[in-house]
Amino acid sequence: MKNSEYKKWLFINTSVVALWGSQYLWVAKIGYAVPPFAFAALRFFLAGMVLLFFNWKIFAKTEIKMKKNHLMKILTLSVLGLFVGTMAMIFGVNLANTVVVSTVININSVLVIFLASILIGEKIKTFQKIGIFIAFLGIVLIALNGQSFTALTESEYFFGALIAFVAAFFISFYTIYIKQYVEKYGGLTVTQLGLMPACFLGFIISMFFENWDFVFDLSFVQWLYIVLFGVITGLTFSLWASSIKHLGSSGAASFKIGIPFFATIYSLLFLNEKLTIWIFLGLILVISGMLMCHLGKISKKKKGDVVFEYEEF
Asked: What is the pLDDT of residues 8-27, one digit of tens each?
């Protein structure tokens, strides 16, 4: 790849991460003005429309021959990764705050390396083990936030962080097992298919258990936040999938380290959230651990060895 092309995609991916971090801002701005499952469904619907709009030529020209069992696995994994991840973002931000949830959810890029060693036998370098330990130490500092564990378990903050951490596990499973289908059918195709069950499930649950009167009660600005949330999701999904072709899956994934950083900046500027010393130290440790894990990524030593690379949408 030419140096200019590489620099262009470095800039694009940095912009994508900055946009990705802003999604926590829009969730916080909406709060519970929109029921959670309806909010998630609207996100996936708008993201799917954006993805289809920008990539319709690719989808129109590509003939996809997919096995039924592959399709079912993609749909199931997408519910775990996309739907559960979004619900955790919505509930977590409202229970804790954007800094905590963005940091804890994005620990999944470290969890992928840890879980892959258990589930599919990937080897972990010593450097990565240290990175995983540091990142988890950061999560503990963020979760405790200077309080005793007994007092913390009675607070909404703790449950918000816990929901985000559980979601990080689901997203990690999605990332590990979706890779084979991304390689076979392409990132854009798999992502587009994955948005369908996530959107459908959100709408079904919302129709039975939530009130849709909010459609008439929301202000123009609140609708703008919802549209921004969905459109930015679609843009980041599309650009992220495209960047992998130019930067490689590990190279593109390493940019996720910046998501908690941008989410923190936005929260301080636009939400006036409090950044305690414990959350700040935890954030530094998590980002440092993520950085060490990516710098210590496994390399191919000989033919037949597996190179651990992954991508996430």
From this structure: 777 887 888 888 889 898 89
